[in-house]
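User: Could you check the structure of this?
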Amino acid sequence: MALSFVLAFEFINGFHDTANAVATVIYTKAMPPRVAVVCSGIFNFLGVLLGGVGVAYAIVHLLPVELLINVSTGHGLAMVFSLLAAAILWNFGTWYFGIPASSSHTLIGSILGVGLTNAVLTGVPVAEGINWKKATDIMISLVVSPTAGFLLAGLMLWLFRRYLPLSKMHKTPEMRRLDDGKKHPPFWNRLALVLSAMGVSFVHGSNDGQKGIGLIMLVLIGIVPAKFVLDLDATPYQIERTRDAAAHLAQFYQRNQAHLSDYLALGKRTQSELPAKFKCEPTLTEPTIFALQAALNGVNNYNTLAPETRQQVRRYLLCLDDTAKKVAKLPKLPKREVADLEKLRKDLTTTTEYAPVWVIVAVALALGIGTMVGWKRVVETVGERIGRQGMTYAQGMCAQIVAACSIGLANVFSLPVSTTHVLSSGVAGTMVVGGSGVQGGTVRTILIAWVLTLPSSMALAAGLFWILTHILG
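Assistant: Sure, the predicted structure tokens are below.
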């Protein structure tokens, strides 16, 4: 049931975001609809397969670490179901009305709603209820990316109009049919439209597809912890890296004892002082390192560990990573040491931030099938309802090229962005520069959805989490 919720979210994500990837190429008749969505599905698949898991865990780590280390409890499962249900409800509603709303906004809003409600329920300060630094970075990327899409696509079209004013790329499909008696764009324009559409599909898969991967891993860790809390396929070298990272972390803290002694209670606890009910506390850092080293001593294969030990190892790793993240923000720590700490954090999480191949394939298929089923509504909105006139070939190329580059750049920095808003804002930018203007009603609807998505999904997820937490105790 939990997996079906995640795949349903990705399926509806296909209605929204992947449909945007092929909207211009279908509207301009550069590719037949069925061929376009099948090719888009293939490139989405490749994007998910080759995109890594950086964005996936950027989304997951919006949640407080206490929820992540206790995800196998009823409280953790209530979190997963409520944020997924909220995201699905809002996504499906906006798709039904043909509004290019953002699945990224929806998911992030749901996670924020769960994190803040959890803080209220557990008495945690709101400032610690979610990872505000990560939330701020993500929100900045979600605001900046459509603005950049609007400006850069408009600038590209302006350059085309200035230096190639007589090119046939400035015709709409209808003008092309009436003037030239041809159905398809000129060859080079058609090639550019097809390649940029597949580029958008690829980067969409490597960005949005990862969100589903992160959610599925939360579900698997919560329901089948013995199999998924650690990467059971981790090589001896990867496990050795984790063990070495713990040893180097202890040395790092001792080296900076003058700055960190009070914050981490260095030298004030013994190895046996971990409480029965484990919780992440900076003052428990030393005993946590000792406990991790003891658990991994002589281990070359995670399969040899008992299921309960695997869960404990994951908790130790997550807490050490969380404390290291907080330590890196302390003002007195030298910049060189902060850089070393970031490298140690990557080694610590080598075997906890992963995804099995079947998870990646399942998400890719859900995205692709969603595109093939629900693309028509969004294609019509992007092609005809943003501008006062139909889209020209040049406008489609500019919007798609800018979208592919913007999302690809976000992938490099593991930042989730909205394919929907980057592409539709790029189309709007080209319509303004092209002189046709925009349809106020459609743009107003998109903007209202953009503004309302975050608070609405937060409220939905918060309400569902409150109810489920009380039902599950």
